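[Meeting: bench + compute handoff]

Bench side (C.D.) handed over the final construct sequence. Compute side (W.E.) agreed to return the predicted structure before the next meeting so the bench team could plan truncations. Sequence as handed over:
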Amino acid sequence: MTSHTTTDIRLDLSCGSLGAAVDEPGDASQPCPVVVLLAGSGPTDHDGDNPLLAAPIGNLRQIGEALARH
């Protein structure tokens, strides 16, 4: 496994703001493939957590981090 970096970003748009986390390989010296993971509807955040669930699961965060490490 390789290291990775995570950067939180926020885009301010005329209709509101869009938050995201960008995970990338720590040793990316060349262009690499990109995957966009979109959270579901409702109160689900970009990590995949939903306040209606009993506990945070972070499934989208875990997938993004795993892809960045491999």
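W.E. noted at the follow-up: The beta strands are 4-13, 16-25. C.D. will use this when planning the next construct.
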